[in-house]
Write a structure and sequence with these properties.
Helix content: under 10%
Structural class: mainly beta
Strand order of the largest sheet: 4-5-6-8-10-11-13
Keywords: Cytoplasm, Glycoprotein, Leucine-rich repeat, Repeat, Secreted, Signal, Synapse
Number of strands: 42
Pfam families: EPTP, LRR_8
Strand content: over 45%
Protein name: Leucine-rich glioma-inactivated protein 1
Organism: Equus caballus (Horse)
Number of helices: 4
Shape: elongated
Subcellular location: Cytoplasm; Secreted; Synapse
Largest sheet: 7 strands, mixed
């Protein structure tokens, strides 16, 4: 058959490899069928013409070593096509092409076998630093974990190794490992995912190394683990190792006894006997969150119509700025303002469902505003008598026997610290206290005069001209009466109180000298602690969740944040904040977030976020 040769472009190189496995399925395609199947043009040999229609290509699905190999690429058997004959000759010979197609099928099979054998990877050899048998490998003086260990090894050992770290995925090429010994080396650190993929690992030994800690979840995924040996390491039993103590408590694996080398209080303690309660790993900090581009004096927070708001007194612009929380941007934004002159205090008070704001000013008198929900703005409803309140410095609101009051501390020579009472339509003057004493601060608190007695309302007035004075509420007369003072505490600028486990404490601020923490003893306040003051005008206690803080501001140095130590029953230094001339610190809780607002008389008002950090995570 000179016009139609059976094979074109014979390529004997495909016969180079011996037979290894049989194809699971072989399908031979015509050029047109393959083009339609793959949606790409079929490549042809150089001598194959476009008119040839009897060509065959093969699509192979091979099964070898229990792995399926799906080759969707055309396989050319010696040539790209088989030519059965031209159309006219085929018609004359009838079925003469059928034997040729059978031959082509056989050659297709043979080519698939040869190509598959040529692609089979070589089996990894034993590394030069290791001694290998059928199932075991012992590596000595290795500088790193070798990647060419035979994959069917079930026991692997390292001794006198030259590496000190074990990186992530070091044993991915030995998935059949059941026994792993990394003993008597100088291993200092191990990656969290070092043993990933070792689902068959039964015994793991890291004994006699130089490990001080282990990363959390290092044993995660080792489902078959039954024995762990960690002896002979110098473990530091701090928060980073808390997870190991918890893991030892619930694992089914046998773990040999291991001991702490540090910190000093845990030295030689058995780690297996520790509990998670032995670790105090939760810490907090105030992290800078937002700057407000203006100075401020007082800052207050309040709830109104199911929302939380912040109001800030700006002395230089004379405004009360109201802020609300932006739930989308997660920041505080302007809500409204009240414009005045030299504003020093903006004190909100919500009576039933109505919001009122007492605005204290150094010039132009002080006023009371009401929030008009229909007009959606603040409306002035009352002036505070200017003859009594000449130079307001602080305002405190409180409620006694369902009656609402507020008191204004006046710091002028001719003014009166005055209490005002709500009468249903407005506030009227109820009582004047401490005339002409130049009061700088007023604090409302409730204390018991005798043990096991009910707490009664008290006021503490601070003054630059005498010691702080304590007033007690008289239920019969519905007035405050002068009870006593706090001895040995001259020149106190402000007094603020807090409670711990039912005991009442106060923080007393002094500009220069020592500020103090004192505890109520039933009849008087007693010294507990002193903190050095360097131009301090605020010593503010505040509670955030279960954390009790006290913040001592300074005009000449960093602001000191103290945290209450329950065991010592004292404050300990906690953090420093850089706030220029701070005048108040206010805790604001919004949307399960806690913030600290720090006013500044000479710089920007600052907002810090209270952050809780788990050192064991």
């Amino acid at each position: 058959m000179q016009d139609g040769s059976l094979l074109q472009q014979l390529d004997p190189s495909h016969l180079a490899a011996p037979h290894r496995s049989l194809p699971r399925a072989v399908h031979c395609w015509s050029e047109e069928q393959l083009t339609n199947q793959l949606q790409v043009p079929v490549l042809k040999s150089r001598d194959t013409e476009a008119k040839e229609k009897g060509g065959l290509l093969c699509d192979l699905v091979l099964e070898q070593d229990n792995h399926h190999l799906n080759s969707r690429s055309p396989v050319h058997v010696w040539g790209y096509f088989f030519d059965c004959m031209e159309s006219e000759r085929s018609q004359r010979m009838g079925n003469a092409c059928i034997p040729l197609k059978r031959i082509a099928y056989f050659l297709c099979l043979l080519s698939a076998l040869l190509l598959t054998e040529g692609k089979k990877p070589a089996k990894p050899k034993c590394p030069a630093v290791c001694t290998c048998t059928k199932d075991n490998a012992l590596c000595e003086n290795a500088r790193s974990i070798p990647r060419t260990v035979p994959p069917d090894v079930i026991s692997l050992s390292f001794v006198r190794s030259g590496f000190t770290e074990i990186s992530e995925g070091s044993f991915l090429f030995t998935p059949s490992l059941q026994l792993l010994f990394i003993e008597n080396n100088n291993i200092k650190s191990i990656s969290r995912h070092t043993f990933r993929g070792l689902k068959s690992l039964i015994h793991l030994s890291l004994a006699n190394n130089n490990l001080q800690t282990l990363p959390k979840d290092i044993f995660k995924g080792l489902d078959s683990l039954t024995n762990v040996d960690l002896r002979g390491n110098s473990f530091n039993c701090d928060c980073k190792l808390k997870w190991l103590v918890e893991w030892l408590g619930h694992t089914n694996a046998t773990v040999e006894d291991i001991y702490c080398e540090g910190p000093p209080e845990y030295k030689k303690r058995k780690i297996n006997s520790l509990s998670s309660k032995d670790f105090d790993c939760i810490i907090t900090e105030f992290a800078k969150s937002q700057d407000l581009p203006y100075q401020s004096l007082s800052i207050d927070t309040f709830s109104y119509m199911n929302d939380e708001y912040v109001v800030i007194a700006q002395p230089f612009t004379g405004k009360c700025i109201f802020l609300e929380w932006d739930h989308v941007e997660k920041t505080f934004r302007n809500y409204d303002n009240i414009t005045g002159t030299s504003t020093v205090v903006c004190k909100p008070i919500v009576i039933e469902t109505q919001l009122y704001v007492i605005v204290a000013q150094l010039f132009g008198g002080s006023h009371i505003y009401k929030r008009d929900s229909f007009a959606n703005k603040f409306i002035k409803i009352q002036d505070i008598e200017i003859l009594k309140i000449r130079k307001p410095n602080d305002i405190e609101t409180f409620k006694i026997e369902n009656n609402w009051y507020f008191v204004v501390a006046d710091s002028s020579k001719a003014g009166f610290t005055t209490i005002y009472k709500w009468n249903g339509n407005g506030f009227y003057s109820h009582q004047s206290l401490h005339a002409w004493y130049r009061d700088t601060d007023v604090e409302y608190l409730e204390i018991a005069r005798m043990p096991q007695t009910l707490r009664t309302p008290h006021l503490i007035l601070s003054s630059s001209s005498q010691r702080p004075v304590i007033y007690q509420w008289n239920k019969a007369t519905q007035l405050f009466i002068n009870q006593t003072d706090i001895p040995n505490m001259e020149d106190v600028y402000a007094v603020k109180h807090f409670s711990v486990k039912g005991d009442v404490y106060i923080c007393l601020t002094r500009f220069i000298g020592d500020s103090k923490v004192m505890k109520w003893g039933g009849s008087s306040f007693q010294d507990i602690q002193r903190m050095p003051s360097r131009g301090s005008m605020v010593f503010q206690p505040l509670q955030i969740n279960n954390y009790q803080y006290a913040i001592l501001g300074s005009d000449y140095s960093f602001t000191q944040v103290y945290n209450w130590d329950a065991e010592k029953a004292k404050f300990v230094k906690f953090q420093e904040l850089n706030v220029q001339a701070p005048r108040s610190f206010t805790h604001v809780s919004i949307n399960k977030r806690n913030f600290l607002f720090a006013s500044s008389f000479k710089g920007n008002t600052q907002i810090y976020k209270h952050v809780i950090v788990d050192l064991s995570a």
